[in-house]
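pasting for the record
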Amino acid sequence: MANKATNTVKKIKAYIFLKDVFFIAITAYGGPAMHLALYQKRLVEEKKYLTTDELLELYSLAQMLPGPSSTQTLTSIGYKFGGPSLAFLTLLIWVFPAFLLLTLSAVFIGLFEEQALIYLRYVTPVAVAFVTVAGFIMIKNSISSNQGYFLAAMAFVVAALLRHPLDTIVNMNTPWIFPIVLLMGGVISYSVYKGDLPQNETIKVKIPWKFLITFFIIFIAAGVLGEISSNRFILLFENCYRFGSLVFGGGNVLIPMMLEQYVSHASYMTSEQFINGVGLVQAIPGPVFTISSYTGAIAMQGNGILSQFLGSLSSTVGIFLPGALLIFFVYPIWKQIKSHPIVVKALPGVIAASCGLVMAAAYLMFLPVGFNWIEKGSFYFTNLDTSNLVNIVPVLIILVTSFLLMRTNIKSPWYIVVAILAGILF
C-alpha cells in the first residue's frame, strides 16, 4: 500500500503537487493540528500521494526537530517526492500567502496606527485566550507523567513569575532564558529517564553533512553579526534564525520568545502591537511562524514601506531557513535518529518545558491586557493602578473566548472577524 502510493506520486509532475500545496496554503486555518488534517484530506484521501502511515511518520520526524512542525512536515513531503529542490518550492508556496497578508496588515497598522489600534482593541484579549487554551491543550495532549508536569511548572515559574513581578530580585530579564529552560528540561529528562530504549540501528546511508554544516555556519555567523552590528535587518534575521533553531512545540512556543525579545528587550514594538499580531495570525491561513513576517514589518515601522517589506522578508527567511536545513539533513537518516537514546531520553523534557513556556506566554500577554498599570510596560505589583485595577471588558472577553474555544468547534478566524467588527462598530 505504502509503495503503491509513493510510486504514484513519482509519476506526477511537480507543478501539480505544488498546485495542491497552494490550495492547502490558502485554506490552512487553525494551527498544526488542523494543518495535519488538511494534509490527510488533500494529499492522502483525495490525491493519494501517500498513505496515512507515511504522513504520520513524516509528522513524527518534524516533532523531533526544532522549528514549525506543520511546515516541516509539508517540506519533508516535498523532499520525499522531489528532493531538496521540490522541498524548497513547497516551502515557498506554503509560506507566501501568509507572509504577504501579514506584511500588508503590519503596513496598514503602521500607516493608520491610531485607527488600527481602535479597530483591533478586542483582538488583543482574543489572542490571549488563543494562547492560554493552546497551552492547556498542549499540556493535556503532551504530558502524561508527574515529571512532565514538574518540568512544565518549572518552565512557567522561571519564564513568567521570576521575571514579572520578581525580576528585581532574581534578574531573569533576558531572552536567553527560553533556550536555557528548554535545555534544562532536556537535561533533567535525560538524567532521570527510566523507560525502555529502542534498538538504535547503524546508519547505512550517506549523511548529507553539507546541510548541517550550513545550518551551524549561519547560526554562528548570524550570532556574531548580531552582536557587532546595529543594522536592524541583520538583527531581525539573527533573532528569527535563533528562534527557528531553538523552538520545540510549534508557533505557540515561539510567541513568548518573540514577546520578550521584541517588546521587553529590544523595544521594537509595544505589547499591544505584538499581541495584535498574535491575533491576526490566527485569522490568516498558513503557519503560525509567519508571525515573524508581521513582527519584522512592525519593527521597521517609520522607516518606509519598502523597509517594512524588507524587514518582513529578512525575518521570514530567518525563521524558516533553519527548519528547512534540518529537514534536508535529517530526512535521509531520520529513522535512526528518532531511536537514538539521547533523543528518546531528552525529548519528553523538552516538550514538557515547551508547554510551560506557552503558559508563560499567556501570563505575560495577560498582564498588559488584564490589569491597569501606572507606567506602561512595568509589571511590578507596586506599579498597579489600585484605583482601577482590572480591565473588566478584556478579562470577560478572554474568559468567554476561552470557554468557546474549549467547548465549541467554532473556527479561530471567526473570533478575529467578530473582534474586529466589534472594534469598528463599538
